[in-house]
Amino acid sequence: MEPALVFLHCFGGSGRSWNGVISALVGRRCVAPDLRGFAGAAEWVGDYTLGQFVQDLKELVVSQNLGRHIVVGHSMGGKIALAYAATQPPDLHSLVLIAPSPPTPEPIPAAERERLRTTHGERAAAYTTIQKITYQPLPMPLLEQAIEDILRSSPVAWQAWLEQLSREDISATMAKITVPALVVVGEADTTLGADLQNQAVIPYLKAARLVTVPRAGHLLPLEDPQALVNAINIQNSMFYFSDD
Fold first, then answer.
1. pTM for the whole thing?
2. Does the chain have fewer CB atoms within 10 Å around its N or its C terminus?
């Protein structure tokens, strides 16, 4: 049986960010939660630490009886996936990291970090954010969805990522990751693109390969879901998802 797939969305995203990917994965068991503090989980009360996100993921795997599984993490979700993999879960098969936030502090420019910090909750600011990180304009329904997801984010979770979690350095734990990883980035991603992945992610992983997607930016699950389906279906690298 093929491993189950657990999808972890980006900062300001939601589980529905993966709808275009999941709809094409016919016959695969897929779970795409809203992470604590975001979208449908915005009212979640508790800590906002990487350790807590990892614990949430472990509890999800158990409660859903997923067994052998692949974690697909995008941006913020990618950093959570790395932290999770470093705990060496026994049923973790492999990782698909989509423009992941690195295990080192994420190099968000100071001016952009401040813009994000001070404008959360403003529709115009959310629109600006999406325009900055996509290569081509999103279709209107997806654009509205992305804006709504940002606006639904808990202010506490939003600030916690910007001020604490994105700055956290977990690179010392990366040597504990033993499963293979496929890193996928949009060729036009100016946020967490190929250069950063080659410098701050790939060197920390024992078995990793980088794949770039042409004519795409940072929001790959919305911009080119088929490219992610191809990666998950092993069309780009059979070795990385083999059970050998």
1. 0.94
2. C
